[in-house]
UniProtKB/TrEMBL annotation:
SUPFAM superfamilies: Dimeric alpha+beta barrel (SSF54909). Belongs to the YciI family. Gene3D superfamilies: Dimeric alpha+beta barrel (3.30.70.1060). It comes from the Bacteria. This is Transcription initiation protein. It holds the Pfam family YCII. Residues 20-97 form the YCII-related domain. It comes from Chitinophaga oryzae.
Length: 112
């Protein structure tokens, strides 16, 4: 099995709904991640803060605004799968998809 990075971009913030909607969304995430863990496909993942720093090619560090909306990287997952297509199938269950997020799936090269 190979590891794949799933980059979660954009989407509407589900936290803007009612407390019940927010709870349902959180439970959906917990169920989906639980299934990935139980199947052995989940390796790691985290949400990301919307703010950050950028290091430019001339070694300048700036706090310029990061991408917004659909380009904002909201989080990531590392999944194990037999192929990129298999990782994409696993990613189709992502609870953020109904909120307009997109998922980019990239194979992780192993350094030898």
């Amino acid at each position: 099995m190979q590891e794949f990075l799933v980059i979660i971009r954009g989407g509407k913030d589900p936290g803007l709904g009612s407390p019940q909607e927010m709870q349902e969304h959180l439970q959906h995430w917990q169920r989906w991640l639980g299934e990935l863990m139980a199947s052995g496909n989940y390796v790691a993942g985290q949400n990301l803060e919307p703010q950050g720093l950028t290091v430019l090619s001339n070694a300048t560090v700036t706090d310029r605004p990061l991408a917004e909306g659909k380009e904002l990287v909201a989080g990531y997952l590392v999944l194990r799968a037999d192929s990129a297509a298999a990782a994409a199938e696993l990613a189709k269950g992502c609870p953020g998809l109904p909120f307009g997020c997109t998922l980019e799936i990239r194979g992780i090269r192993q350094l030898h």
